[in-house]
Amino acid sequence: MPSPIIRAQRLSKTVQSGDAPLTILDDVTFDVGDGETLAIVGASGSGKTTLLGLLAGLDDPTSGDVMLDNVALTTLDQDGRAALRQRLLVFVFQSFQLLPALTALENVMLPLELAGVPDATPRAREWLARVGLAKRTHHHPRQLSGGEQQRVAIARAFASDPKILMADEPTGNLDNATGVEIAQLMFRLNREHGTTLLLVTHDVTIASRCERRISLAAGRLVADERCEPPASCKLSASRCA
Predict the structure, then answer these.
(1) Strand 71-72 with 63-68, pairing
(2) For 76-88, how does the pLDDT look when each residue is reduced to its tens digit (9 = 90+)?
(3) How far apart (Å, rounded) are the C-alpha atoms in residues 164 and 167?
(4) What is the secondary structure of 31-79 as a DSSP string?
(5) pLDDT digits over 185-208, tens only?
């Protein structure tokens, strides 16, 4: 296994629900190798999205720690975590998270400009072309289909040349055919750039394309399964879900 770029060490998350504590994650430990593709699967409410937020340093665990690129998140304040995220990782969300007042080109350019990238405009144009939107650069999100909006989000993510891509149900708001196209695009770009991919998904077919799957149930890690190569994975749906 490649050297870990992400290490989750005995992560637990408990919140107060009425008069009683509610455990969302319970003692979760695993590593993610540099360049690995990992699906996080489980039923609704099993803790998948919470886990992704903890791994990115967007939320604090009740106990345990996360190491990102050999940096312990508990040693950083919020500004330090934000700087680490900017250097290492990007997100693709189910709801696209595009700014409605900006064009497709401007949405891809914005994080590049904020990071001080000198060639933000040509790089954004290049990435929109790579996701098949060269003729839609000046369209606003409301003028784009759901699949096109997710392509803009993927272009925005990869344009910053991240080491880690975290995707939370990236095809959840798309019809089946469009979802397949978006998944194929995301996996192709990820393979070309050697990005570490963490993918939260309910889709068994998409999960089976990852090299590895971890399964959560009631906040606990109940399975950690590897399949090499991803395209030939023969695990049954019951084992992958």
Answers:
(1) antiparallel
(2) 999 999 999 989 9
(3) 10
(4) EEETT-EEEEEESTTSSHHHHHHHHTTSS--SEEEEEETTEEGGG--HH
(5) 989 998 899 999 999 998 888 898
Residue 6: pLDDT band (50, 70, 90) is very high
- Count CA within 13 A, CB hemisphere, residue 118: 0
pLDDT in the model for residue 236: 36
Phi, psi (degrees; rounded to nearest 5) at 94: -60, -35
Q: How far is CA 44 from the centre of its chain?
A: 17
Task: Specify which residues 40 forms β-bridges with.
Answer: 200, 214
Tokens of 232: 């030939």
CA 83/CA 48 separation, integer angstroms: 24
- pTM passes above 0.90: no
**Tokens read off for 6:** 């992400």
The DSSP element (H or E) to which 130 belongs, if any, is helix 120-130
Read off the pLDDT band of 158 (50, 70, 90): very high
CA distance 37 to 6: 12
Q: Are strands 63-68 and 4-17 parallel, antiparallel or unpaired?
A: antiparallel
